[in-house]
Amino acid sequence: MTEPTAPAADPVLAHHRRDGATGPPGGRAAVIAGIGSYVPPGVVTNQDLEKRLDTSDEWIRSRTGITTRHVVDAGTATSDLAVEAGRRALASAGEPGADAVVLATTTSDRPCPATAPDVAARLGLTGVAAFDIAAVCSGFLYGLATAAGLIAAGTAGRVLLVAADAFTTIIDPLDRGTAVIFADGAGAVVLRAGTADEPGAVGPVVLGSDGTLSDLIEVPAGGSRQRSSATAPEPGEEFFRMRGRDTYRHAVMHMLAASEEAVARAGWRLADVDRLAAHQANARILATVAERLGLPPERQLSNIETVGNTGAASIPLLLAQSAAEGRLTAGHRVLLTAFGGGLAWGATTVVWPEVKAL
Ligand code: UT7
After folding, report:
1. Is the pLDDT of residue 23 over 50?
2. Is 50 a pocket residue for ligand 1 (Cβ < 6 Å)?
3. Which of 125, 138, 217, 261 could form a disulfide with 338 if both were Cys (CB 3.0 to 4.6 A apart)?
């Protein structure tokens, strides 16, 4: 880690300025201007799950940290969650417009077309660039990098990035290994063009993947591989599957490494981090990552107890809820990190801006 050379009131912001956040030095940075989130009203408790699965409240709480989760009702799709979160983020930003809509999701409404154009249209943004990103639980971080790139290149001046998943629509309701963990929700941010030294500027984004382990987390059927083969899918292959124990190990390893790299590339030290906003995969994973980064529990944001693992939505939902509840406030130096199917992972930094989370 090197010290800043330019005099500045805030050394962390000075590092951002010197290193360049998201584009070429002197280029435009992506700055968070608004944030919103939405969870569907339906709630499933651990006791509800005990009634239909060979599991227990005690196992779920002690192994995952989850007590309740929100689930969509029949007829509600990912776009419905995304539209509501997007509407709130735009209201939070104080201006209705965006010239690109990026949606990170694993549970698109249909295999084709992308869901983002529909979300854009329902938000009154017909005509703008709109596309989906498939990076499973790391979708929000891949989305931040994409949105920052659009802004740095001048393709867009204002991007609505939504991360939404209705995971319960692809979960096998009888698979206790996934049904107790995954849930539904959405989070969204508005990113505007700004400078890297502003609060809210997205720092350097670290991204990575390992496709040799793509079978750790997968939906085997429904894609071109299965459709172009002569054999019909085996029963249950349309459902999401996860090899939990193997995934666990990789999650810790990659979130740690990506976090350390993102902090270094931002010019921060780990001790500078006021809040860790990690993908809410499992409370034990989060505790391990925080501990190994040397971050005490009070610096760790967590909402897994009441929302479960909401896939791509996890981080923006966590940020929005934490900001609304006052656990995340303007000036906090936040480290974001995620890991999931692909395998794919990422991390970045942001100095939390003055925004009202809706
Ligand atoms: O979001 C994308 C990234 N995802 C992750 O990072 C998730 C990573 N993995 C995990 O969070 C954990 O591995 C799980 C929560 C999925 C599982 O926890 P675990 O501590 O790794 O349990 P395990 O898979 O090693 O299973 C331990 C035992 C097994 O029984 P035996 O073989 O010891 O007799 C399982 O069959 O717990 C059993 N088990 C359950 N028991 C009650 C597995 N699921 C359940 C359940 N209720 N729901």
Report:
1. no
2. no
3. 138
| Closest by CA position to 203, among listed 277, 270, 262, 269 | 262
Task: Map tokens 């529909």 to a residue.
Answer: 118
Please indicate whether residue 64, judged by its CB atom, sits closer than 6 Å to ligand 1: yes
What atom in ligand 1 is closest to the CA of residue 309?
1
Cβ–ligand 1 distance for 182 under 6 Å, the answer: no
Separation CA 352–CA 334 (nearest Å): 7
Dump pLDDT digits (tens) for 5-20: 333 444 434 433 333 3
Q: Which atom of ligand 1 is nearest to the CA of 247?
A: 8
* Structure confidence by residue, pLDDT tens digits, 126-160: 999 999 999 999 999 999 999 999 999 999 999 99
Cis bond upstream, residue 113 (ω within 30): yes
Query: How many angstroms separate the alpha carbon of residue 62 from the centre of ligand 1?
Result: 11
- Pocket mutation for ligand 1, best pick of 245, 284, 318 (most atoms within 8 Å of C-beta): 245
pLDDT for 73-131, tens place per residue?
Answer: 999 999 999 999 999 999 999 988 999 999 999 999 999 999 999 999 999 999 999 99
- Amino acid letter for position 263: V
Q: How confident is the model at residue 226 (pLDDT cuts 50, 70, 90)?
A: confident
CA of 187 to the centre of ligand 1 (A): 27
Spatial contact of 160 and 131, defined as CB atoms under 8 Å apart: no
Distance CA 288, CA 344 (A): 19
Domains of the chain: 29-194 (3.40.47.10), 206-351 (3.40.47.10)
Ligand 1 contacts CB of residue 55 (under 6 A): yes
Structure tokens at 3: 């010290």
Only one residue has tokens 């993908």, namely 279
Give the residue, out of 46, 62, 63, with the most ligand 1 atoms within 8 A of its beta carbon, to mutate for a pocket test: 63
* Residue at token pair 């974001």: 336
* Residues assigned a catalytic role: 137, 279, 309
Beta strands in the chain (DSSP E): 29-38, 42-45, 68-71, 100-104, 129-133, 158-166, 184-194, 206-209, 217-218, 241-242, 275-278, 333-340, 344-351
